[in-house]
Design goal:
It is built from one helix and 26 strands. With 321 residues, the protein is mainly beta. Its cofactor is Fe cation.
Amino acid sequence: MSNLDLAPEPSACGGRGFVVAEPVRELLSPRTVKLGESTEVRRLLPNLGRRMIGAWAFVDHYGPDDIADEPGMQVPPHPHIGLQTVSWLHEGEVLHRDSTGSLQTIRPRELGLMTAGRAISHSEESPKRHARYLHGAQLWVALPDEHRHTEPHFEYHADLPTVTAPGLTATVILGTLDGTTSPGTTYTPLVGADLTLTEGTRTRLPLDPDFEYGVLSMSGSVHVDGVPVTPGSMLYLGCGRHSLPLHADSDASVMLLGGEPFAEELLMWWNFVGRTQEDISRAREDWMKGLRFGEVKGYDGAPLTAPQLPAAPLKPRGRVR
């Protein structure tokens, strides 16, 4: 998914200096962003209070939206560098196309994982004949320096492993949870999991104390370590946790995102993740000149035009504002 802001703000991310080294309960409120003509998203990362959780650098939550009489998601071809995109649905379908030739319809609780590496372009759209509701999350994972110029590729995993306990089913999207590992390719120690809880469930989820974590509420009513987290909001949890208490007041679903704190400082602007202003400027110039990012074939429409870079220099400022 693209960042469609016409005047995107640069975000300086990474570095261990601002990692909370102990458990905390920091509730992050979303910022509403228009995505195309008919889709509105709630942006949780980067946030006014926090920019990253491990290597997770961008989180949008959208829906549930009734798109029965609408085109639904329509995101034209656009570029990425230096990151992975994670498409995750609870309802609906998204058709993915990219410049490596991938064409894949992604359905609920199937993993669409695109590694941009040195450069890729892609589009995302609701199929012409689509389900009534669209509900999901789009996430970016920053690539470490040694892998950020890797060859671009796309992975699709329809069957993902699960961890179960009474009243809880956890689908492991990326990384490892409680000894269970996703088939998705990762480049830093991290975890992403979709947790489905039945009403009345009280449980504890095992965690890695070296990771920092956040929990995004997708639906229902759930208390995370005693804090009520409503759909479309995220609770940042810090590091140093061996387990996480969860209590579902109703049937509920949340996403657990975590990882080893990202050591490198990086810059994120529009759809690019780099290390310097030169990285970002060169990527924008190449996209506008039709270089490096390839062509998305089959999409009915023109590719996105990159916004103008801000006049002020892009400077890293750490993990939090």
